[in-house]
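Lab notebook page, bench 4
Experiment: in silico fold of construct C2
Operator: M.H.
Input chain length: 551 residues
Purpose: comparison with the prior construct
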Amino acid sequence: MVLDFQMTEMREHKSARLLSATNEECQPQLHNPIAIRQVTDPAPANLTPILDSHSNASHHLAIKLEQQPTQSSSKIDQKEHSDNKSDRQTEPADAQVRHLKDQLIRAKVYLSLPAIKNNPHVTRELRLRIKEVSRALGDAAKDTDLPKIAFDKLKAMDQSLEKGKQIQDDCAAVVKKLRAMLHSTEEQLRVHKKQAMYLTQLTAKTLPKGLHCLPLRLTTEYYTLNSSQQNFLNLEKLEDPQLYHYAIFSDNVLAAAVVVNSTVSHAKHPSNHVFHIVTDRLNYVAMRMWFLGNPPGKATIQVQSTEEFTWLNSSYSPVLKLLGSPSMIDYYFRAHRANSDSNLKFRNPKYLSILNHLRFYLPEIFPKLNKILFLDDDIVVQKDLSGLWSLDLKGNVNGAVETCGESFHRFDRYLNFSNPLISKNFDPHACGWAYGMNIFDLEEWRRQNITEVYHRWQKLNHDRQLWKLGTLPPGLITFWKHTYPLDRSWHVLGLGYNPNVNQREIEGAAVIHYNGNLKPWLEIGIPKYKNHWAKYVDYDLMYLRDCNINL
């Protein structure tokens, strides 16, 4: 996603600069760097509107530039001189960088024109200037990054471009060439966007080598212990409803460790906190070994395998029956077929894991508990969470942070309202809410028989006509009118896809959530958010060093 954004921004800049060059060629009287700067303003941070409106915007800009009335050079020079002081005060921090990039675009355009090609002296001069400006520009992002010689190179390039402008005078040929280049650039953008999206999805589904090594190393170590060393302490606390209980369902040892470590670090009374970790058969031993070797202070740990829940089978759970069906497996692993869903995120095989659906069976997994806090394994806790257990949920089952501020988190984003079963029972504009940190009242859950509601809707969605895949859509349905809105400061989302999450919100949040593909343990994670997660990992631990896991 970060790669996609950078490519988009680069292509957007290039398209704008080509249009700027068109303006220069077709209106030689206009030699106004201010106008160029207006055309080459940076692309907006919101990627989707750029991509959706790019072609139309480019077309209108081209028309506008062709129709723009000309002014005399002397008037413009007088205007620039009179406003020179104020311009310097309001000039963007990257004005010279943009100017240099614009020059490179114009020079390359000139080199492709027949009139310039027929003039070897100007051709050699322009090629030399391109090398000089490229070398001076380097990787500079703002004017302060530029070397001292950059201004000299800028002036020299301006002089060479002026010569080129005097040689070519066929405006129609220039416009034709630039339109062709613009069309080619937009086509490259489309192709690269598609490739970047695919590679991001692929990377998100791929386990890094170090995280593959870690459970193998832990498993080997576990079997060197004697039987007395393979057990956790404080087992009497596991069913004590007076304590603070957490449910974490994960097959990622390091991610689960960060959740536990960050929670205990901020707990006022760590000995009153109990963590119930459920993992799959493949990672069960490794998960146990990690917490046996790295106990979280005075807190209590329980590690279970999904195989221990013998009651959870396809005869009881409709979703298990569906996940094991040939049609579902075909949907996930044969996505190249013509009738497959084009959206890659709906074809992530993680949805085949029962770990992803255990959240709908909390009362059955913890029959002696009254309340439990569900935590995803891609969150970091930054404050004491014990206050959540004393909240009055007003008879609701699920306490969660609503996401009404995000248009894409309304019900109509996740549910198929063209189906009468959905349209008759739900409001398309209803607020969605976030999984990742949810306080569940298990007594109310049992009393209102919420699990049966979940089963009924899963049976109705056997052909995926009510919603696609994942756990949020059935969650929205199952807890419809059973969700209590928590204050937004309890749970801040977006650190796994949005590079512009408000820093104050991050700092004030009780829980921050790396929802999205850009997980902090992956190389594609957003760099500025990684430290919030990494500070709860001791990279000097033997297991991590052996597996070459580092920040």
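Observations: The longest helix spans residues 171-205. The longest strand covers residues 273-279.
Next step: discuss at group meeting.
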